[in-house]
Each structure stands twice: as C-alpha cells, then as structure tokens.
Amino acid sequence: MTMTPISRVDILGVEISAVTMETAQATIKAWVNDRESHYVCVTGVHGVMESVRDPGLRQIHNESGLTVPDGMPMVWSAHWAGATDVERVSGPDLMLRLADMAAVEGWTSYFYGGAEGVADTLSERLETDFPGFRAVGAHSPPFREPTSDEDEATVAMINAARPDLVWVGLGTPKQERWMASHVDRLHAPVLLGVGAAFDFNSGLLPRAPVWMQKAGLEWLHRLRTEPRRLWKRYLRNNPAFVVRVILRPPTLIPGDSKRNI
Fold this sequence. Notes:
Layout: E1 8-11, E2 14-17, H1 21-34, E3 38-43, H2 45-53, H3 55-62, E4 66-69, H4 72-81, H5 91-105, E5 108-113, H6 118-129, E6 134-139, H7 148-161, E7 165-169, H8 174-182, E8 190-193, H9 197-202, H10 210-214, H11 218-225, H12 227-247, E9 251-253
Helix pairs in contact: 2-3, 2-12, 11-12
C-alpha cells in the first residue's frame, strides 16, 4: 500500500510529523498490514530539548517512521509553521486508540518496559477494556543496561511471541535508543515508544484533566504528582524551549522533500 508522504515540522532540528490522531493511526495500520518495520517516537518538549543537546538522539527521531507531537507546544509550533491541521498525539491516547483498532483488526501486542509488574497490569487492563485485544507478552527489564546475553534473550522472547505491535515504556531518551537499535532485529512491524503511557493506562498514575491537556498545562499536573523526579526536567527544558523557538522559529518540510539528517 502506498501512503501519501507526511509533511514534517522542523522544531529546533527535530522533525515532528505533521499528523492528526487519525493520520497517525492510518499510517501505522498500513505498516502492520504491509509488514513494514518502523518505530514511532512520541515527542514533546523534553524529547526535543534532549535532542538539541544530543545529535545522535536527534538523528534517531528524524529517522523514525513517525515522530508524533506529544504536547501542545509541539502543536502550536506546527501551527506557527503553517501545518494548521496538526493535533496532539499523546502516548496514552495513541495507545488506547490503537488498542481499540487492534481488537478489531486482530493485531497482537507485546509490552516492554515500566516498573516491575506494570506491563502485566497494563496488558490485563487493555484486554478488559477492549474485548478482542490480545497481549502476547509483557516484560519489565531492570533499570540497568542489559548484558549482551540478556538483550539477545529479550529479542528471542519478543520474536517468539510474534506481536504486531511492541509497546516500549523506558522513558526518553532510553526508549528511542532502544527502538532504533532493535527495529531491524525484531520481526514486529511497529515499535512504539510511549513512556509514561504505561503508568497512566495501567492506572498507576492519574492523568491531568482534559482542560489542562488542551491548555498545554499537563506538565504542571505531572510536576505536582511527581515533583522529585520531574522538577529539574521542567525547570530546565521549558524556558529554554520557549527562548530557542522564538530565536529559531519552526519551519514546514513538505512531505515530498528529501530528509536532511
């Protein structure tokens, strides 16, 4: 199946896909049906600022099948660049929408990441909420770097389960690096780095009210719920992002243009 090339928005060197939730879903559906191997980055201010400081991480984002806009600053930046149809595609929302689609299409999912037991809880909850949804495995790796033998065992375990979707919840930038280094080793068509979606959709953490999400204030809700872990991230990244974007406004890259990575 031939897909229309998706335009991108250059935000501080990170190419954010100019998508809506529907176009993101349609693209992923085409990959699964055609058995094309891709990974999806779900990226907001944190991911962009980490990529500003790390060219290797920026390249990983720009080589993804999709880097979807997670957070209203990404959406506002895209609109500023002229991509007025772009809407927020958050990790938790994308997971729920694709879980519903997977139940209908008969796709299977594997969950890799999260704290001990979270991946199992998440898969069980999605199976309950979406009749027909099938999880074929879940694994919560240790926080340390795996040995080469452990990594080989993980690849063999996931491939043996034969999932269509691999959900990766390791947090940025670890999950993006993991997907980029494993996309050619796993048989699953699509890897999705969704970070905190594991905690939100398993019920471990509450999501911000919808009005806060739409107002671009979900970061404030997260700061209130996890202050010790997140205060440095937000105080460092948010002001720096605003200043940098003002100095270097986002630009639209047409979908038929060549990538400049």
